[in-house]
Specification:
Largest sheet: 3 strands, antiparallel
Radius of gyration: 13 Å
Shape: flat
Structural class: alpha+beta
Order of helices and strands: EEHEEHEEE
Oligomer: single chain
Number of strands: 7
Strand order of the largest sheet: 4-3-7
Length: 98
């Protein structure tokens, strides 16, 4: 689930061991509509394991609008959230969050 409600009860609650969160916070649609400060990119590589993880549209737009919005992201192979410094954008190799 994706939500722009920071008080949503499932924010930062894992769906289960080795699974992503039940809900992820994103910028509101109105905030994302203001435009992007970085390119829209929807996949990144975990440099440790080499796996590509893909994100949905609202998450990708949130990164493009505010690259510092998140401090960690999910690796679909490792099954955990890890610091952004461990990920590079698949499209251009830049560090996620930069």
């Amino acid at each position: 689930m994706i939500t722009d409600n920071p008080d949503h009860p499932d924010i930062n609650v894992p769906a289960g061991p080795g699974q992503p969160n039940k809900a992820y916070l994103v910028l509101s649609e109105a905030e994302r509509a203001k435009g992007f400060v970085r390119p829209y990119r929807n996949s990144y590589v975990h440099v440790t394991c080499g796996t590509v993880t893909r994100m949905g549209y609202a998450l990708s737009e949130t990164y493009a609008r505010n690259p510092k919005f998140y401090g960690a992201t999910w690796c679909c192979s490792c099954g955990m959230h890890l610091p952004l410094s461990q990920f590079k954008w698949d499209a251009d190799g830049q560090e996620v969050g930069s």
